[in-house]
Design brief:
5% strand; two-stranded antiparallel sheet; single chain; 4 helices; 245 residues
Length: 245
Amino acid sequence: MVHKRAKLYLAGLLFSALTAQTWAVPGTIVGSKHDLSSPFGGGSDEICVYCHTPHNANADLDNDGNVDSNHATRPPAPLWNRRITTMANYQMYTSATLNMVCDNTPSPLSLVCLSCHDAATSFSGIVGAVNTTDTHNLVNEPNRGATNPNCGTRCHPGGGDEPPKWWQIGPDLSNEHPISMTYPTASDDPDFFIPPDLQKGWSDVKLFMGRVECPSCHNPHDPTNIPFLRKSMVSSGLCTTCHNK
């Protein structure tokens, strides 16, 4: 028979091993790379607060002096709880063959994604990184626990400024999928499928105010299709939702 103390010791080892891993809940943000909470110590157990807040959210993410939600075409980010500094020199996608134009600066809805994924966040000496877009400051602090997100197990596993990784695409978006542009119509380009809703897109692939943005293809709350894709890439299913090829 195993001694009671030994049982407790083994249970403690098991708990430590499990809590060191990512507790991912399929189909949700819980335990994913976008879950910046620290439910087992070192930070707050609140998940949503590191990006969203129900009160006094940052309403001018592109820092143009206007409330984002009042803009006629540029979609806002929902109840954003972080302060960011807009980089003035994003290099946006251009094409001589496609009848579309991307904004000079990403819309607020895409800007919040790029505030972490533009490779400028807290790094120094990186080519193309001219500014820190995400200041790592929350508008409203968590009600429970520490104020800092669980940076060590997410973006900075070494505890400091690690080299750029694949998810840090940099401020040069000229070779990335275009964002912050109006989705082409049939008259613009017959190589694009027309969505059932010209403003919202499809049930899985989304448009925002009729525009293509980062969350059109990525669902930041669901890591089922890596990397946070809204649809599987099997047989290029995500691509062929829009592209008639």
